[in-house]
Design brief:
The structure is a homotrimer of 156-residue chains. Chain A is of the alpha+beta class and 156 residues long. Chain A is built from 3 helices and 7 strands; from the N terminus they run H-E-H-E-H-E-E-E-E-E. Chain A is globular.
């Protein structure tokens, strides 16, 4: 069981980042439950229990709205991301819910080819295992650096 | 079955990059079928269906020739790579053939110690599961940036 | 068996780096056997069989001493790491001992948010499978670059 859960999470994480990096943002909300929690914050804020994140959404509607804004603003055209994830640590499994933590590195590629580390951090996730696969009931994206660009264009 | 295939691919990818990063380039062609397709291209060219890649080979012979040229040119002595891969997404399995996609990050380490991101992108692979393990019938290396050094010394 | 071993190693590596990146350094020695070998060296020194590493420890006591020094020096407060690992290559399994190699990338995040590649390389590991999970009998951290900061604050 535990090994199967580890796999399920390892694989869905790979699909999640592929969805973003392939610019299929309209499919991105479907990795979440509805309602859900999606939050981007910094390690410093997270450690001190500060609620205010950089990004917050609690439903498919809000996630989709975010994608629509990106499409309209055309900001997304200026760059792409490449997410590289480590293997997840499974922290807890209860009744079809799985708490896991996964380290990430996001590289940003600007249209002129300039390539930089955009962010590093960890996903603090609560997955619910549904028939169609695991869905994110909660994803808190904790960025290591406090110097995260407030104009966060693409999802992490 | 699916889980076994996922493993097989996950593990052979790790061996593939280890072979390159350990400078055992002469063994590199054996990760491929013969004939095969190995191509390095950019995301922009790939999206527009432009055939011209940066590197192209369709047999063990051509892959080996490439390695010989590198050895003769001694370019490879000036730097090493470190590949970091994400987990593969398995896209299709038919009759012992597996289509998968895997994100990569290649860091280049110059002889003086200077360390930079050399390339990011994804492997679009067609593996055939042979007795001795999976072999690459096709690997298209799609680099995110268009600013890929045309003097691509080492394989990606 | 082999697949189970691969998993065991994949998962314990994820836990190991999470322990460091979460700043739970006091738990770090428990990933090792006692006695053990922990060494950080460079690819150039390793290739030439030079024994002198940058860091060396051969017991829980020495590993713990290292952590205490870091805590006292307060150097650790100035930055954090984010380790991103590739999947391990399992090289050998004999009588509950596993030799594996795993590529790593360590990103360093300074307190002001500055984020850089700190080191890349590979772990050359000898794990012993104990009741409570695999323990490192030996970890040789081979850094690709010779320009590794001699004031290595945190474990790799």
């Amino acid at each position: 069981m535990t090994q199967d859960i580890f796999h399920l999470i390892l694989r869905v994480q790979a699909d999640y980042v592929r969805c973003i990096d392939d610019d299929r943002l309209e499919s991105w909300p479907y990795y979440f439950d509805d309602p859900c929690t999606y939050k981007i914050t910094t390690a410093a804020n997270y450690r001190e229990g500060l609620e205010a994140g950089i990004v917050f959404a609690n439903s498919h509607g809000m996630l989709s709205d975010r994608v629509s804004s990106l499409r309209e603003a055309n900001i997304y055209e200026h760059h792409t991301y490449r997410h590289i994830l480590g293997a997840p640590s499974i922290l807890e499994e209860i009744d079809g819910a799985v708490r896991s933590e996964t380290p990430f590195l996001v590289v940003r590629i600007m249209r002129d080819g300039q390539t930089d580390i955009f962010a590093t951090g960890r996903y603090l996730d609560l997955y619910r295992v549904r028939e169609g696969g695991p869905k994110l009931a909660e994803r808190i994206v904790v960025c290591d650096s406090s110097r995260i660009n407030t104009l966060l264009a693409l999802p992490i």
